[in-house]
Amino acid sequence: xxxxxxxxxxxxxxxxxxxxxxxxxxxxxxxxxxxxxxxxxxxxxxxxxxxxxxxxxxxxxxxxxx
Length: 66
What we know:
- The protein is mostly helical.
- It has a single domain, classed as lambda repressor-like DNA-binding domains (434 Repressor (Amino-terminal Domain), Orthogonal Bundle).
- Helices cover about 50% and strands about 0% of the residues.
- It has helices spanning about 5-15, 20-25, 30-35, 45-50.
- Helix 2 crosses helix 3 (about 30-35) and helix 2 (about 20-25) packs across helix 4.
- It is globular and about 25 Å long.
């Protein structure tokens, strides 16, 4: 999966640091950083991020563009 996403905007609007989101999602801060730069990530990683931000899985398009 690729690139365009609203992750940084949503994370910042919730006043979350990268490390806080990474901890909630159970992934590394480096992974958050890479995704915010538009690099690819696995579906499982997307799922963890979506849930950590408080979205339901069917709201994934709010975070990751289809």
